[in-house]
From TrEMBL:
InterPro entries: PG_1098_Fer (IPR054168), RNA_cap_Gua-N2-MeTrfase (IPR019012), SAM-dependent_MTases_sf (IPR029063), Thump-like (IPR041497). Keywords: Methyltransferase, Transferase. It comes from Flavobacterium fontis. Residues 279-321 form the PG-1098 ferredoxin-like domain. One of its GO terms (biological process) is 7-methylguanosine cap hypermethylation. This is RNA cap guanine-N2 methyltransferase.
Length: 394
């Protein structure tokens, strides 16, 4: 099922030698292998180049094959797959939506046996080839529908893993699990006939509250960010769970460090409002998506600028999962006071403010860059002000 011609030494040498060459340039050159489909070779180069940062293990392993560039873009990164695999344990796991097999590869390092199910027979064969090349021998490959396999084999697993794909891609818009294939809310009861534990991965645009209304038995949600960009949401389902739902904001760093904050989902706590003090605290992306910023502020004794301005302040400098700034100056957002910023260079951000960053830059001729960070915000009593700050740390 795999194209063995792509594994010929001369072809592999060509792919590796040109992995940093734009495919648009190579496409204009003569095919150095007239007996082969040049488009397939170019696709390998393009996809392997995409894998360099995201999938370094695959990139550095000789004789790995790659699917389309889109498949590489949609697969889990190694950093998220490795973390995810460490959050669950057991003897057996079945990945019902296998794809390029990055998650299955890391699950195989923590489970005795893993089954990888994939509709696309060619992709399934490619992942099986890569698995053998990479020395992983506790993975079984099923070319076909994962649920059909469960029904026919009637085998129970310690965990079921799913990464549903959106049936209708509308970029920038929130979607629901029922919009995805497989339709997990519709099938979850049947899935639980074959396991007591299910892990679901989704894209970060999914509305967490809406997903919780669609699902049952959710015991935990994790929001996974890499370098302060939310990459995926994880929903842990445990049959007949009765514990309070926990949600964890996780930020992974390329240095193998991680920042985690766990709280009870939906917990409401009192947060005192206050005018800007000496320091400004901006929650990181995972904390924002998890909704736990007020809970953490309450625990740390931070004050909030406005109920809808999710920035916090204090007189003391403390550790915080997000960016920290020293406040240099606070002035009202008025024409007279804004004259001091005209033509200056700085980083601009808005929170609970009627004008966008682009509008403010254009209106006041503010160039990007420099050491100053200006936050255009609304305070407790509705005042529109500018916080002139400098960033603390990296």
């Amino acid at each position: 099922m795999i194209d063995h011609s792509l594994l010929e030494p001369e072809v592999q040498d060509f792919i590796n030698a040109h992995v940093n060459t734009p495919v648009s340039v190579l496409a204009l050159q003569k095919n150095p292998f007239p007996h082969l489909d040049y488009k397939r070779i170019l696709q390998q180069i393009e996809s392997k180049a995409k894998a360099a940062q995201k999938l370094p293990t695959w990139f550095t392993t000789p004789l790995c094959l790659y699917p389309s560039k889109i498949s590489i873009e949609q697969t889990s990164s190694e950093i998220t797959a490795s973390y995810k695999a460490q959050t669950i344990h057991g003897a057996s796991l079945i990945d019902l939506t296998g794809g390029f097999g990055v998650d299955a590869y890391y699950f195989a390092q923590h489970f005795q046996s893993v089954v990888h199910c994939e509709h696309d027979a060619q992709l399934s064969a490619m992942v099986a080839h890569n698995s053998s090349t990479m020395g992983v021998h506790n993975l079984t490959f099923v070319s076909g529908d994962g649920l059909d396999f469960l029904r026919k084999s009637n085998t129970r697993f310690d965990w079921l893993y799913l990464d549903p794909s959106r049936r209708h891609e509308e970029k920038g818009k929130v979607f629901f699990l029922s919009d995805c294939a497989p339709n997990v809310p519709e099938l979850v009861d049947e899935y639980f006939e074959y396991t007591d534990q299910i892990l679901i991965k989704t894209a970060p645009l999914l509305d967490i509250t809406a997903a919780l209304h669609e699902l049952k038995y959710v015991s935990e949600v994790q929001v996974i960010a890499v370098q302060n960009e939310v990459k995926e949401l994880l929903f842990y389902l445990r049959k007949n769970t009765a514990n309070p739902l926990q949600i964890t904001a996780v930020t992974l760093f390329k240095t193998d460090n991680a920042s985690l904050f766990t709280h009870e989902f939906g917990l409401r706590v009192p947060v005192e409002l206050a005018a800007p003090q000496s320091y400004l605290y901006e929650p990181n992306a995972a904390l924002m998506k998890s909704g736990g910023y007020d809970v953490l502020a309450h625990q740390l004794g931070l004050k909030k600028l406005h109920v809808h301005t999710h920035l916090f302040t204090a007189t003391a400098l403390i550790d915080y999962p997000g960016r920290r700034f020293q406040i240099r100056r606070v002035f009202p957002y008025q024409k007279a006071t804004m004259k001091s910023l005209i033509g200056k260079k700085g980083h601009v951000a808005t929170r609970n403010f009627p004008e966008s960053v682009a509008e403010l830059r254009k209106k006041w001729k503010i160039a990007d860059g420099g050491a100053s960070y200006w936050f255009f915000v609304t305070l407790e009593k509705g005042e529109k002000v500018v916080l002139e700050t400098t960033k603390i740390g990296d």
